[in-house]
Every structure is written in C-alpha cells, then in structure tokens.
Design goal:
381 residues; alpha/beta; Rossmann fold; 2 domains; eight-stranded mixed sheet; 49% helix; globular
Length: 381
Amino acid sequence: MNILMTLANPFTHDPRVYNEARSLIKAGHKVTVLGWDRNNENPPFEIKDEIEIVRSYNIKFMDLVKYDIFRMQLWWNKGYKDALKLHEKKHFDIVHCHDLSSLSIGLKLKKKLGLPLIYDAHEIFGYMIAVDVPKFFVKVALSREKKWMKDVDHIITVNEPLRDYFRSISDKPVTIIMNCKQLQGIKYETVKNSKFTLLYLGSLDKNRFLLELVEVVKELPDVHCIIGGKGKPEYVDALKEKCSTTQNADFIGLIPMSEVLPMTKKADVIVCMTSPYSYNCSHASANKQFEAMVCGRPIICTKGTYPGETTQKEKCGLIASFSKEDLKKAIIELRDNPKLREELGRNALNTAIREYNWEKQEEKLMRVYEKFKKFQNQHKK
C-alpha cells in the first residue's frame, strides 16, 4: 500500500513515527511523511532510510499569527492542499495521522478521496496543551477529538490508560502500540564510568523536574549528570544556566536520534521524573523507560505515574515522590549499591526481551495494516 503519514512537526526527532514508517516499508509498503516545518528550518523534501519526507512551510499570513494553537488551524488547510498535490502524484491508499494536531488533514482527505483513516494518538492532545493554554482551549480540543473519532477507522495509542480513554469516547477499534525500542542485544553489559553517571535525554519542561535534578546533583559532587533535548526557549535557557553553574552537570542540547541509545547504554542510571500532577505526564508512557530497558539500565521514575507503575511491576528501577529529597535518596541508593544497579538493569533488559521491544510492537502494527490491505483487495475485486 501507498501510505501517507501526517504530523505537526518537521520529522527530525520523532522516533515513534520513524519506527512505524520503517516497519511498514520493511513489510513492502511505501511511506510518505508530510510534516509541518513551522520555522522553515529543514529541506522541503528528503529521503531518509527509504522514508519520503515532505515538509509543509508556513505561508506569510501564518507567520503573523502569534500562537501555534491558532496557527495550527491555518496549517490544517495548507497541509490538506499539500496532501492533495501529493496524492495526484502518488495515489495514496491510506492516511495515518499522528496526534490531533494533524488529524483534520486526514479527515478532509477521507471525505474528499474516501481513504481509510488511522488515528495514532501519542497522547491526549487536550491534556498535553493544558500547561500552555487557558482551560477553554483544553475543552475545545477534548470536545473536537471526541467528535472527530466517529470518522476514524482505527485508533492506535501508546498504553492501557489511553486505550481506556479512547474506548470511553469512541466505539472504533483501538490497538496499543508502545513506544518501545529495538533490542540492542540480549546480553547484559556492565557500565565502566569513572564517575557515577545520570542521564536524561528528551523533552525539556517543568514537568520533567530537571532544574530540581540539577540542584540535587549539585549536592552530590561524586555524581555526574548529563541532560539533553529540546523545549521552550525560556525553560531551556534556565536549564542551561543552572547546568553552567553546576560543576558536575552538563547540558548537551539536542542530539541526533541515532545517538540516544548508545548514550543510554553508557550511563549508570536513567532519570525520568515526570509530574504526577499533570494528567498528560502521569498517564503517558515515557520513551526514556523503553530506552533504558533495551540498554539494560535502571531508571528512576515518579511515584503515582504510569512509568512509575511499570517500574514497580517490572522491578527495573526505583520510584520516588516528586520531591528533591526523595530523588536524592534514590540517586544515593543506586550510586552506593552497584549490586542493586546490576540487578535492576538485568531486570530491565529481560523485560525488554520478553515484552517491551519494538519487534513485538511491529507485529501489532502489521496486523492493523493487514486488515486494511484485505479490505482494499476485496474492494478492488
């Protein structure tokens, strides 16, 4: 099948979309990703690992709009027109929309062309934007998502809490495809750092407890902390400043996706402190957890969150309350107990081998697409 994926980012650092696209290509499908490059920072077209990437830029009027929440409405029209032009050349068989921020494009394409539509919800969009916008916009997003579900053919999401949410607002089939990573091997490897090393690579915002992490590390001179990723400029600047004044904390910025797992493997412990007070953070899966698992590294997660529950269930790390005091205790416990670190790291790797690996998620993705392929073949007959 010829597949169009849509998403509201330029597709430079989106491992979930990359993994799904690569798996579909490996199965014999063709995948085009239409992404929104709102800052015109990347090439309009490129091919990466056989994935055709087309980037939609802002028109001049869109640049005059101050907030993305409003600019997005304009991009839906622009993205839809760009998708129609692509369809004239490629004749897509199915549309796969990532998140509510690109679903409008798929709905219009389905109405215009009669294409089957998959909605891939990485999170509940309304709750994700809740930290940045007034409650009115949150309600609008949640209401819009519920309304639009009636025109979706299949829902894909990331974990059980989100599956249950979508089942509560829709009667469409829901498949869980976790953000697991490809196995890096099945043999546990020890770490050989001269100084006990903590690592966080990912989204940078106040719900990740990163400024607090640096403050904790500052009190532990025999601990080295590395932080990387991207986020809103004001938060990133504050984080960079705090790291620059902390001798044992390094801020490395955004790194290529290809370097995430090798760096994870070199760390002693991965830190993933997400806020239990944010619905989005507490119910979401964490990429950091799956990265730690396939690398055989223990993780520190927050009590009262979905990643924390997984950590407890699989005995692959420690959980701490969302406080500097508890985080410090967890770091010290892992720093001072190499035997515990190895035990938790081995559990993490065994868990990845048993269940939490991309190879198993790929099988579920193929079953979703097989259903549409059979429908397409029957329709042609």
